[in-house]
Inverse folding.
């Protein structure tokens, strides 16, 4: 009988598979680039390890690529065949059930099935991490935190993976606005597990949302802390770029974009989202981004028909619009309208409803119809959490809304929104402060709206 790092029984055939599986668990929690390698070693040591096959399927679905759905189905079939040959624990079978639910377009039920494992196995870090990831993709912030609140406090610091669990807990706290508790928990997570890229990233979120750019630059000052990570390392640099942009250091932001954020030009939706949202922010700051949109749009063009995650769809549309490729963006927007009525997944229908408003709002903004952009982005504004992603990531749509208000001449409303933004960030936000200052000093008339909107707000190029 074999047990994993958390003491839960695993039905592996030999100790080599157990050791490789433990490496897989740690790597997955660390967002390590070596995770697939460790998983492959596990299955090489024990090809009939059903839990590993089911886990691989769930990881494939988390990439939100339609071409990987077939491979995920194969993982489920292989897991079922393995379970027919070798009895497994109820806990392991439930992971396969979660995979089956997600494949059946029921990701929220999949997350719930994984969380049910924690009722009997509260230290099952795999179930915890997988459920955390699905909840994040669905925008289920309250459930994401509730799940962690039930189990995270019971992880003693002596547990070998306690730091990573605290990192998840910190992120869930931050997304629900518990910033002080999130920061304490995240810093503790990194102290316990220095490889906890997710926990380090959670603290960066706190510093972003509380307007502490200087502290953010210091916190992310050493890239060796996340050099082991998969493409999460690009996202962490994206956070560093946001802090640099907040300080007006746009030349450094462009350098980070070219060398790190888009250094590998991958087409993973998270990488495209990093690039597109940063380029849009730079343009709102009056920075000429050159031809950088073209590379993103070329990647996004191949993803127009994906339809796996609304968060991804909107960033594909944004990339296409940045390069002036309106046809693909319109296709995405119209597909979202169709999906909100007919898609078999309730989660997709709900997200597509709000996503369609945002997509058409971005189109209107691109076409210069700022009043319509204001109407559409405003209608989507409070419902976009269901598309997934974080508050910091979705803030791009808030900035687009503010820009639309200003350019349509709704200055008083814009000033109100900007004031609220500064208050939420502890009284410090360069983007909002500069816009407010220009609005207060504006001349009267519609032409002033375009003058304000066209004024660069960056302070160093």
């Amino acid at each position: 009988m074999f047990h994993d790092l958390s003491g839960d029984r695993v039905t592996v055939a030999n100790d080599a598979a157990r050791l490789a599986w433990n490496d897989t668990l740690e790597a997955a929690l660390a967002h390590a680039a070596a995770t697939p390698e460790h998983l492959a070693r596990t299955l090489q040591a024990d090809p009939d390890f059903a839990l590993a096959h089911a886990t691989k399927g769930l990881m494939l679905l988390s990439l939100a690529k339609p071409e990987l759905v077939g491979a995920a189905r194969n993982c489920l079939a292989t897991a079922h065949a393995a379970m027919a040959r070798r009895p497994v624990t109820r806990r392991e079978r439930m992971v396969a059930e979660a995979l089956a639910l997600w494949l059946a377009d029921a990701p929220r039920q999949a997350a719930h099935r994984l969380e049910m494992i924690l009722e009997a196995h509260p230290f099952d870090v795999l179930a915890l991490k997988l459920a955390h990831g699905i909840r994040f993709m669905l925008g289920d912030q309250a459930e994401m935190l509730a799940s962690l609140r039930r189990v995270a406090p019971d992880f003693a610091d002596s547990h070998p993976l306690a730091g990573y669990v605290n990192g998840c807990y910190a992120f869930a706290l931050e997304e629900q606005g518990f910033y002080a508790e999130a920061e304490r928990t995240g810093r503790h997570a990194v102290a316990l597990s220095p490889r906890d890229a997710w926990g380090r990233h959670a603290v960066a979120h706190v510093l972003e949302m509380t307007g502490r750019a200087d502290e953010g630059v210091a916190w992310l000052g050493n890239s060796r802390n996340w050099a082991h990570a998969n493409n999460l390392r690009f996202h962490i640099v994206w956070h560093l770029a946001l802090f640099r942009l907040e300080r007006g250091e746009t030349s450094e932001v462009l350098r980070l974009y070219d060398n790190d954020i888009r250094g590998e030009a991958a087409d993973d939706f998270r990488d495209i989202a990093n690039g597109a949202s940063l380029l849009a922010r730079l343009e709102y700051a009056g920075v000429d981004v050159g031809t950088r949109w073209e590379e993103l749009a070329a990647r996004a063009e191949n993803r127009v028909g994906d339809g796996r995650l609304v968060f991804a769809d909107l960033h594909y549309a944004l990339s296409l619009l940045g390069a002036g490729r309106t046809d693909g963006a319109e296709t995405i927007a119209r597909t979202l309208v169709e999906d909100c009525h007919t898609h078999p997944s309730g989660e997709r229908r709900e997200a597509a409803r709000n996503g369609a408003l945002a997509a058409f709002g971005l189109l209107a903004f691109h076409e210069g119809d700022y009043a319509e952009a204001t109407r559409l982005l405003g209608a989507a504004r409070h419902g976009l959490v269901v598309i997934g992603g974080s508050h910091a990531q979705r803030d791009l749509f808030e900035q687009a809304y503010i820009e639309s208000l200003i350019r349509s001449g709704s200055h008083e409303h814009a000033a109100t929104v900007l004031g609220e933004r500064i208050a939420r960030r502890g009284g410090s936000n360069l983007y909002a402060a500069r816009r407010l200052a220009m609005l207060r000093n504006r001349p009267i008339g519609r032409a002033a709206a375009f003058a304000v909107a066209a004024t660069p707000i960056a302070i160093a190029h």
